[in-house]
């Protein structure tokens, strides 16, 4: 039996800052998965992320330029461009069948497109918490200054 239902989700193009690493993706649930995390690593990285299934991300250029970083349990796999240093995506520890994608890498998107971004409580990872529940630790708010002008 064949599946006659085409995937209606949009395909996004993404790249690191220097353009060496390029990838395409479909989001699992649109922009509804937007989040930050307050674990020791994410606090320093500072990226806003959205989710894509592993099968919905394809590196189209620069796979050999990706650098892998793992820490603590070694389960999460964080990928960076080895040339410009930008975090592109990571295989999630809490959902190993998904990538967290750096919103800033997605063409036409910015972390500042979101007025309110939930911050996941990552200081105690959901996998290390009784019941494995995810908690919101707080929110990051952004309000543009109308007097600031452009870039």
TrEMBL record:
A Pfam family per the record: GFA
InterPro entries referenced in this protein's UniProt entry, alphabetically: CENP-V-like, CENP-V/GFA, Mss4-like_sf
Taxonomic superkingdom: Bacteria
UniProt signal peptide: none
Statement: the UniProt record of this protein carries the keyword Membrane: no
Molecular function GO labels: carbon-sulfur lyase activity; metal ion binding
Residue span, CENP-V/GFA domain: 12-128
UniProt entry keywords in alphabetical sequence: Metal-binding, Zinc
Gene3D superfamilies: 2.170.150.70
Family: Belongs to the Gfa family.
UniProt protein name: GFA family protein
């Amino acid at each position: 039996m064949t599946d006659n239902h085409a995937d209606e989700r949009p395909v996004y193009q993404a790249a690191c800052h220097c353009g060496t690493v390029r990838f395409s993706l479909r989001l699992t649930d649109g922009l509804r998965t937007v989040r930050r995390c307050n674990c020791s690593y994410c606090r320093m990285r500072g990226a806003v992320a959205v989710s894509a299934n592993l099968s919905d991300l394809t590196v189209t250029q620069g796979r050999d330029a990706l650098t892998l970083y793992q820490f603590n349990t070694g389960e999460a796999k964080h990928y960076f461009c080895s040339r410009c240093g930008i975090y592109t995506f990571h295989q999630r520890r809490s959902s190993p069948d998904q990538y967290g994608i750096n919103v800033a890498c997605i063409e036409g998107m910015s972390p500042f497109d979101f007025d309110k971004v939930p911050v996941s409580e990552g200081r105690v990872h959901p996998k290390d918490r009784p019941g494995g529940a995810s908690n919101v630790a707080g929110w990051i708010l952004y309000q543009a200054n109308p007097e600031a002008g452009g870039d």
